[in-house]
Amino acid sequence: MPEVNNWQLGRNMAYRFDAAYPERQFAFVFNINRCLACQTCTMACKSTWTFSEGQEHMWWNNVETKPYGGYPQGWDVRILDLLEQANPGGQTWDTSNAGTDGEFYGRYDGMTIFEAAKAQGGQQEAIGYLPADEEWTAPNIYEDTARGSKGVPGRYGAGEALPEHNTWFFYLQRLCNHCSYPACVAACPRNAVYKRPEDGIVLIDQSRCRGYRKCVEQCPYKKPMYRATTRVSEKCVGCYPRVEGSDPLTEGLPMETRCMSVCPGKIRLQGLVEIDPKTGDWKHDPQNPLYYLVKQARVALPLYPQFGTQPNGYYIPPRWVPREYLEQMFGPGVNGAIDAYTRPPRELLAVLQLFRATQTIIFRYEIREGPKVRDAVIGGQPWEMFDDTVIGYDSQGNEVANVSVLEPFIERPRKYLNSL
Questions:
Q1: DSSP bridge partners of 386
Q2: pTM metric for this prediction
Q3: Of 313, 346, 379, which residue is a domain's last?
């Protein structure tokens, strides 16, 4: 196997193909703290892409309740167990050099899904499994339930043993991560799965696909899905006509995907980041809001970076969840990310206002400083809040967003109180 550089792991790793990186990479940030689990994103995707015969159980976008929800059920627990079986007790991080060149989050000393498959000497490119049909039947199983169904033992863990007065859960928003080293691309024996060189979106050439389901088996996030009526696999296409600006609605400008643009909780920000063609890392671009959130503020983290696919979906972790659980899910940057979100620096507080401020993809932002509006003590330390204005610009340099930190207060005139 060739070796490629995985900047999320802080080291090189084995992968089927030589390194080849897109000019720009489709990426997104989700703020878990704001999610309502309203499933508006899920239904927007469903009504756009997977409403046809044979797609009844396809949910390219879904929101699942953790710790016991999942689609397919138990997808992450199964992969974590397979990694543990391949390398017992070895899935650890060395954070002694975190933040230095080459070790952004630290160095992952365990096995990736690709290395685990190689160590086991099998014929697969990555460890994985094919979910049973019943595991695909409930996209939001255990929704809003911290301990599983009443009187029914948790299927993927002893959820019923959690203290009744110390329960917790949170919503995890999921779609294809359009990984830099996709397991689906490596797994396909017909090379039907590929990354677009212009934006890194991962697609399946259905004229080449023969329905072997290797992509379904070896993607750790279980986002390729088999369609029995056509006998080929399908997956999230990143709404590429919108992202590339060819959809008539976009008027030629890159636009956010359907699931991003409908979010009423304003938890989503999607864009394109420039990629270094030699290392696969993000080019220094401090005025790109995604670059700022991931690389500078370090408030957004990749989902299960230890899998080794270098996912391009990032999450601001929930503040109320046990840190050990979050560290397993998002890696060793959890404490710093939650601290930054709890006591946001002035620039971060402004950039957070760009979430769902426009459907047009924001390539650059600037901040116009405003007056101080609040003094507070958070975590025993002083904190100041400023009513700054953040301005977002599209790919052509046109202003498409202008949002202040303080939302305007509008009082409805008395004569309109009962206008309905």
A1: 372
A2: 0.93
A3: 346
Q: For the segment 213-261, what is each residue's pLDDT rounded down to a tens digit?
A: 999 999 999 999 999 999 999 999 999 999 999 999 999 999 999 999 9
Whether residues 334 and 314 fall in one domain: yes
pLDDT by residue (tens digit) across 344-354? Answer: 999 999 999 99
**Residue the block writes with tokens 């996709």:** 182
Where residue 227 sits, what CATH number does that domain have?
Answer: 3.30.70.20
Looking at the structure, do residues 172 and 320 belong to the same domain, yes or no? yes
Tell me, letter by letter, the H, E, C secondary structure of 104-161.
Answer: CCCEECCCCHHHHHHHCCCCCCCCCCCCCHHHHCCCCCCCCCCCCCCCCCCCCCCHHH
Does some domain include residue 239? yes
Do 181 and 74 lie in a common domain? Answer: yes
pLDDT score of 130: 97
Is it the case that residue 110 has pLDDT exceeding 70?
Answer: yes
Residue 166 and residue 237 in one domain:
yes
For residue 75, give both structure tokens: 């997808």
Q: Can you give the pLDDT at residue 148?
A: 45
Q: Is it the case that residue 105 has pLDDT exceeding 90?
A: yes
- Domain identity same for 353 and 342: no
Q: How many domains does the chain have?
A: 2
169 lies in which domain range? 3-346
Closest by Cα among 301, 297, 261 to 32 = 301
Q: Which residue has the tokens 């797994």?
A: 187
Determine, yes or no, domain membership for 339.
Answer: yes
Which of the two residues, 263 and 152, has the higher pLDDT score? 263
The answer on 62 and 107 residing in a single domain is yes
pLDDT at 203 over 80: yes
- Could you tell me if 332 and 394 lie in one domain? no
State the greatest distance between any 2 C-alpha atoms of the chain, in Å, as a whole number: 76
**pLDDT tens digits for range 151-178:** 455 454 444 454 444 678 999 999 999 9
83: Cβ contacts below 8 Å, ≥ 6 apart = 91, 110, 111, 113, 116, 127, 306, 307
71 in the same domain as 53? yes
- Residue 254's DSSP bridge partners are none
Token reading at 330: 């998002």
Render the burial of 273-306: b for 16+ CB within 10 Å, e for the rest. Answer: bbbeeeebbbeeeeebbbbbbbbebbbbbbbbbb
